[in-house]
Every structure is written in C-alpha cells, then in structure tokens.
Amino acid sequence: MQPYNYITHKPDYYTFITSNGCEYHCYFFDFSTPFSDYPELAPNVFGFNLELKFKPEGLDKVPPDKRIGETVTIILKTFLREKKNVVVYICDNSDNREKARFHKFTNWFRAYNDGTIIQLRGVIRTGNINILNALLIHRDNLLLNDFIEAYQILTEVYSKPDDEELQNILNDGDW
Fold first, then answer.
1. 3-state secondary structure 86-115
2. Among 50, 139, 61, 150, which Cα is nearest to 90's?
3. Is residue 1 domain-resident?
4. Which stretches does DSSP call E strand in 13-116?
5. CA 18, 137, 4 angle in degrees (round to 5)?
6. What integer is the mean pLDDT of 72-76?
7. Contact residues for 143 (Cβ-Cβ < 8 A; gap 6+)
C-alpha cells in the first residue's frame, strides 16, 4: 500500500486527493498559547488539523481508506522530522464524533508510525466536556522530556477526572 501523493503548499500546509476523489487539507498552526508558561517550548508547539474540503457529488459517506491514515502519518512525520517541533492534536467535538476521530487518529499512528514519533494521549475536562487530545513528538527531540513534562502538567491542570475515569475514556471499547 502506498500513501497518496500530496502537495506541499508551504512547510505547514498540505493537500491530497484520494482515489474516490475526496480532497483533504492537512495543516499546522500556532498552538503556543497553552504553553505560554514555558517560553523556551512555546514557539515550537503547533496544532494540527485534517479537513475534508471536497467530496464528490453522489458520495454520501466517505468509505474507509487506509491510505488516508498512511498519508497523514507521513505528513506528520515530515513536519516533526526537524526534531524541534511538537504537534498537539485536538479532536473536534462539535458533532459528538470526537471519540471516533481520536480512535482513528490513534490507530493510524499505531499502524504507520515507524517508532520515531511518540504519541501521548490525554483528556482535558472543561465543565462536562471531555476534550480528547494527543501530543506528538519526535523521539530524538532535544527537549523531549521538557515537552512531555509540560504537556502532562497542562493536561493535569485542566483535567480533573480520576485515574479510573480517564482510563475508561481513553480505553472505551466502543471506539
């Protein structure tokens, strides 16, 4: 299986078209604000988004396509290759499909990561809303431990589910 060919529009913006004609945009954006208490880390923290920009007429639902996961993983690995940046992935919860997104994203990394990228999963609780997220960092990042510590502190500050509840959310068998 081969990833889709993608176009790099700038170092932080990529597009690709699937075999069924769906067009996806992958992009990275400044995510330094949550890390503002860590000025040595904040400039290298980016968010990530994957958007379906075009779906052919008559295609009601996008069919499963393993090549999408492989392509997205390669784009993320390419972005993290410089070994200085980290990526925080936040699952959109506007349509109550955040668990499915989180599960799919996590499985893509399990399937296509060659071990160079570390993924830490987390949940941030704000009121009654759980925000599923992940930190992605290159294994050889010189500030690896600093980024991991900051991420763990930040997710603990904003997330207060007990350990059992956190494990139930992250390991929900329905994902």
1. EEEEECCCCCCCHHHHHHHHHHHHHHHCCC
2. 50
3. no
4. 13-17, 23-30, 45-54, 86-90
5. 15
6. 94
7. 40, 41, 44, 84
Report the predicted TM-score, pTM, of the whole model to 2 decimal places.
Answer: 0.84
Q: What is the widest separation between alpha-carbon atoms in the chain?
A: 49
Confidence of residue 171 (pLDDT cuts 50, 70, 90): low
How many whole angstroms separate alpha carbon 105 and alpha carbon 110? 9
Q: Is residue 175 domain-resident?
A: no
Domain residue limits at 116: 6-170
Q: Is residue 107 part of a domain?
A: yes
* Residue recorded with tokens 């290298």: 44
- Helix 66-80 to helix 98-112 angle (10° resolution) is 70
Contact 149, 40 (CB under 8 A): no
In a domain, 16, yes or no: yes
Cα separation of 45 and 85, whole Å? 6
What total of structural domains would you count in the chain?
A: 1
Give the DSSP H/E element, type plus range, for residue 19.
none
Q: What is the pLDDT of residues 33-66, one digit of tens each?
A: 999 999 999 999 999 999 999 999 988 888 889 9
Q: Higher confidence at residue 160 or residue 141?
A: 141
